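User: quick one, sequence for these C-alpha cells?
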C-alpha cells in the first residue's frame, strides 16, 4: 500500500467532509500511446496522486486521504482483493476521522465488487464506486468528471444509509441493480427494470428513490472468511453436461446457471445439475437475458429439482451472493432461497 496522499482546502467556516479514496486500477487509471487510442491501453498504470491532480476543485468538496490499494485490470480481480477491500472499507468507516469512502475501479467487474461491498460493508456512511470507459490519456476522458461526482456524492449527507452506490455518467446507481451494458459507451452502466437512484451534477446530488432490500448494516453476510468455489455455466442450444460434470468432480460448492429466458435450462444440462444437487452442490438458476427476473418454480420446478431462483440478480451477482451464503454456513436449499429472496 502506498503512502497516503492528502488534498485539503484552505480553512473554511464549516469543516469539509473527510473522504477516503481507495484506488484499485482499471481504465480510469489507464494509459495509451496517444490521445485517440481508447482501446489499446494498459489499465491501472496511473497512480492515485495523478488521478487526483486531473480533477480541479476536489479540495473544495472534501478533504481526501488517498490510498493505492491495487493497480490491476479489473478483469483480473482476485477474491483475496475483495476481502481486502471489504476489510479496509469497514476499518476506515469505523473511524471518526472518515466520513465516507470512494473507490476507483475497472468497469469489467465493478458491478460484482459493488454488490459484494453492498452486503459486506457494515456502516451507514457513504461508499461510492466509480470508473471510466476511456483511459486517462484519452481525448475527452470520462474519468475525471466521474471521480468529481463520486467524491461529491460521498460527501453528501443524502448518500448516508443508501448502501454502496455507483456514480457514473452523472447517474447514481444502487450496487444491487447496476450492470455494464456497453463495451464502449460512456453511459455503459445501467440499472435495468428498476432504474437509477438519482443523479449528481454540478455539485448537486438528488435521489429519486431508495434501495429497499437489506444491505450494509442490515446484511448478515460478511467477506471475512475463505471463499468457497462457486462457478457459472450457461444454457444454450446443444449444450452438453461436460462442464457441470467437470466442476462437480473438481469439488465446487456451488454452480450458478445462466439460463435462457426465465432461467430455463436445456434438458441435458438440467439432468446434470439435478445430479449435482444430489451430491451436495448448491445450484442457482439465473438468466442470461440481461433484465427481468427468474421466477421461483417458474421455468423449472425448483422445489422438486433442488434448485434456487436468483430472482432479479444476474448470474455474476448471483455467484457473489451464493458464495457469501455458503461461506456463512448456509447450505440447505430452503435457507438459500430465503437469502436470495432477502438480498
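Assistant:
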Amino acid at each position: 500500500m502506498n503512502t497516503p496522499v492528502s488534498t485539503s482546502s484552505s480553512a473554511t467556516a464549516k469543516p469539509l467532509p473527510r473522504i477516503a479514496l481507495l484506488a484499485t486500477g482499471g481504465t480510469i487509471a489507464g494509459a495509451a500511446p496517444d490521445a485517440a487510442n481508447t482501446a489499446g491501453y494498459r489499465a491501472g498504470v496511473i497512480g492515485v496522486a495523478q488521478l487526483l491532480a486531473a480533477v480541479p476543485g476536489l479540495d473544495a468538496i472534501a478533504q481526501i486521504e488517498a490510498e493505492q490499494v491495487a493497480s490491476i485490470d479489473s478483469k483480473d480481480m482476485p477474491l483475496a482483493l475483495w476481502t481486502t477491500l471489504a476489510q479496509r472499507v469497514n476499518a476506515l468507516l469505523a473511524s471518526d476521522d472518515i466520513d465516507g469512502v470512494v473507490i476507483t475501479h475497472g468497469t469489467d467487474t465493478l458491478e460484482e465488487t459493488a454488490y459484494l461491498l453492498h452486503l459486506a460493508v457494515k456502516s451507514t456512511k457513504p461508499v461510492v464506486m466509480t470508473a471510466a470507459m476511456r483511459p486517462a490519456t484519452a481525448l475527452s476522458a470520462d474519468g475525471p468528471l466521474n471521480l468529481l461526482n463520486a467524491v461529491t456524492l460521498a460527501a453528501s449527507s443524502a448518500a448516508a444509509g443508501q448502501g454502496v452506490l455507483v456514480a457514473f455518467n452523472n447517474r447514481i446507481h444502487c450496487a444491487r441493480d447496476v450492470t455494464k451494458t456497453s463495451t464502449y459507451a460512456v453511459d455503459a452502466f445501467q440499472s435495468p427494470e428498476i432504474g437509477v437512484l438519482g443523479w449528481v451534477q454540478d455539485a448537486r446530488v438528488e435521489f429519486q428513490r431508495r434501495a429497499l432490500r437489506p444491505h450494509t448494516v442490515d446484511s448478515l453476510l460478511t467477506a471475512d472468511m475463505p471463499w468457497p468455489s462457486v462457478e457459472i455455466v450457461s444454457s444454450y442450444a446443444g449444450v452438453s453436461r461436460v462442464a457441470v460434470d467437470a466442476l462437480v468432480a473438481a469439488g465446487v460448492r456451488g454452480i450458478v446457471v445462466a439460463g435462457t429466458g426465465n432461467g430455463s435450462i436445456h434438458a441435458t444440462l438440467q439432468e446434470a445439475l439435478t445430479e449435482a444437487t444430489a451430491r451436495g452442490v448448491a445450484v442457482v438458476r439465473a438468466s442470461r437475458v440481461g433484465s427481468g427476473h427468474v421466477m421461483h418454480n417458474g421455468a423449472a420446478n425448483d422445489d422438486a429439482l433442488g434448485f434456487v431462483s436468483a430472482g432479479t440478480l444476474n448470474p455474476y451477482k448471483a455467484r457473489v451472493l451464493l458464495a457469501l451464503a455458503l461461506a456463512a454456513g448456509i447450505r440447505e436449499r430452503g435457507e438459500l432461497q430465503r437469502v436470495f429472496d432477502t438480498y
